Amino acid sequence: MDAAAYASVAAAEAQANAGADAKAMAWNGGERASDVMLEDVEAPTDMQGTKGLEFDPFFTETAELDLGEDGEKHGQTSFTERRRVDLRWRHLSFDVGVKHKKLGKTDDSNRKAILRGISGEVRAGTMLAIMGSSGAGKTTLLNMLAGRLTSSKDYEVSGEILVNGAKRNPSTFKRQSAYVEQEDKIFAEVTVYEQLKFAADLRLPKKMPSDVKEQRVLSTIQELGLMKVKDSYVGGEQVRGVSGGEKKRVNVGTELVTDPSLLFLDEPTSGLDSFNALNVMYTLRKLASNGRTIVTTIHQPRSNIFSMFDYFCLLAEGQVMFFGPAQDAVEYFARLHFRCPERFNPADYFVDLVSVDPRNPQAEGKSRARIEYFAEEFEETKKTIDAEFSKVDSTVQQEHQSKYASNWFHEYSKLTGRVWKLNTREKIANTARFGQTIFFSVLLGLIWLNNGRIDWGNPVVASQEAFNIGGIVFFISINQAFAGVFNVLFVYPLERSVVLKERASGTYRVSAYVLARMTADFPRTLLQVLLFVVIIYFMVGFRSEAGPFFVMLYVVFMTQNIAEGLTFCISTVLPDPQAASAIVPVFIILSMLFGGFLINPDAIYDWISWIRWVSFINYAFQTLIINQFGCGPECGEALLTDPFTVEISLATGCLALLGFYVFFRVLWYTILRLTGPKLASEL
């Protein structure tokens, strides 16, 4: 059935559907429980007259803020400097290349359209809802409007987007807008106040006084109704914290603290119960009423949430079914012979109308014909939108602003402080880390107790004891390599997601983050290694001189850091912990096999023996062997050639380990740069 044929039977079908839908609402007197809550409560004075806001329990909060020396309440500031933003877009399209199943390559000749010529606008002080069934293109459109999609070899974006009538500048647009992701990516061990303070410190201008930033943070906390949980941890799976609705508002507040003119949100009510979802939307409604432009995707909101929206965009299969004032949607579809039944949630009705029914071929064909019918009917409205767009001089460029609000050293300082604070608060991880260190150092010390005190007067016994020392030295290298792996493998994936989110918001530079991570991790790693070396060094009975002790400390420290760097690289490429945990040990075991102890290098075929020169465990093992026996004939220098085949000097080994350390950190930085978010500069 095509669209033209469908139109002829739509009126008759609508009448039958209306009767059936009305019967479905017979329970509860025709009203949903979500539509009758809090009706009789009078709205607070500051909320009366605001669209869709009958009552908001969070904004009746009367928490007092701290008084400064001037007697003023810090945090209660009105941000009159915020610039109002109108956003317009025309002919937005998003095409994805379909990959060939056998070749695994993208076929440019067979592209799938995710969005097809979307046009619209949203003005300052209003809230736009983007709705549709799953796969309709809601998040894709939101990401295009937010500047988070750019053309690549796998997909192509096209269209025009104007900010206050000017072609947007990516750096400037990032500074004046904010994006709240569907998933709340926040560290569990930070408090609500610390989360917003960190965002304010890095995303507000460096020249802004610290007391003004403090006021901004406190004002945002109060505006979001979070004052009572200000000093509570955000929380996570293993850390008790705020509720789901409060965590969602913390996520919003992280972006809101910069006082953006334009706020994008992806499914802000996802995962929340109806009460918390309502409160989050109350918050957004008030933000819009204060002059911000808000664009959000949302999946079938309850009726009193739907009534909060000024504009409504309904998508189906990448096409617009309706765009315009939300209050006009019911009448628009009624003119197309699809009138929403009385006391029925319009949002549910509209999404059901434009969803594909896959139950059987007949139902699917009928629903697709209905979608095509709506798309054709909307063409006239789309022409009007495009005509208004054409009146604007789209050649005007938006003024340029720096990509980052703070300088590099300020970012480095704040990041170092945050990583250090998180490191000290990871009680479970720190207990496991240092507990494991003490356990293995004592265990190895007991197994190799006093083996380092070799009797060189008996060559046969000395040779056997020397070989035992080779075993403990090799095991130390392996143990510290795996210690470095486990220090990162199960902690970094969450951190990576937070870093990607913060980078997409222009919070800081990659280089500042990498160096801050290295700086803040240094004391904890050094303490762990020092604890390990002190216990095992004296229990085994290695050379009783200061020089060899500090060489071992250096080698063990570098070995652990090299393994951490390798794990950072692999975990960045493979964010799934299970995938990373399967790949990282492969590299460690490969380095171990060519580590110089399990097999003599001369016994390995030339075509594969070169791997030993890229094995950091090999360099660690040889350096520690030289450190123990390379002090002249009286302490077993002859053993460096038999049974151990040492091919480097002590200095070469130490420099090689330093080179591995620097290489993996630079590689990690490069991977982060290449895998980070890209701005849509062409739209």
* C-alpha Rg (nearest Å): 32 Å
- Terminal CA distance reads 37 Å
The neighbouring-strand order within the major sheet is: 6-7-8-3-9-10
How many domains? The number is: 2
**Alpha-beta classification:** alpha/beta
Query: What is the number of helical segments per DSSP (H or I, 4+ residues)?
Result: 21
Ranges where pLDDT stays below 50 over 5 or more residues in a row are 11-50, 52-80, 679-683
| pLDDT averaged over residues | 81
| Total number of beta strands | 10
The major beta sheet can be summarized as: 6 strands, mixed
What does this protein structure show overall?
It is a single chain. The chain has 683 residues and is α/β, with parallel strands linked by helices. It folds into 2 domains: 57-61 and 70-81 and 124-147 and 171-376, Rossmann fold, CATH 3.40.50.300; 408-675, no CATH class. The protein has 21 helices and 10 strands. The strands form 2 sheets. A 6-stranded mixed β-sheet has the order 6-7-8-3-9-10, with helices on both faces. Helix 4 runs parallel beside helix 6 (244-256) and helix 12 packs across helix 16 (510-540).
Q: What are the key terms here?
A:
683 residues, alpha/beta, Rossmann fold, 6-stranded mixed β-sheet, 4-stranded antiparallel β-sheet, elongated, disordered C terminus
